[in-house]
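I have a small job for you when you get a moment. Would you make up a two-line entry for one protein for me to read? No commentary is needed, just the two lines. Write everything out right here, beneath this request.
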Amino acid sequence: QVQLVESGGGLVQPGGSLRLSCAASGTYFSIYNMGWYRQAPGKQRELVAGITRSGSTNYADSLKGRFTISRDNAKNTVYLQMNSLEPEDTAVYYCKAEHPQVRDLRFWGQGTQVTVSS
């Protein structure tokens, strides 16, 4: 079992930056592939970025160069650095942990709201 708690969301002006954190409790955090997703009002949840247990990363094409995902296994935490934020980035951001070998074994956080507005 893995519990995930996101933090770091808030209100930011266009062009600003935020860093989201996702703290995981439970055991064996380092073996999980981690990801950040977001869901805007009226839209489906979409992948923002992912990072494997070995540190390989992938990003939504539209976000490459603005967002950076990282993880600190010693702190059981995954981060999402978001730069040059745009109003279209407004959404609830969710953290996900997915076991790389056990099918359908995944956990979600409760989400953190990011609002980009002047």
Q: What stands out?
A: The first strand starts at residue 2 and ends at 7. The radius of gyration is 14 Å.
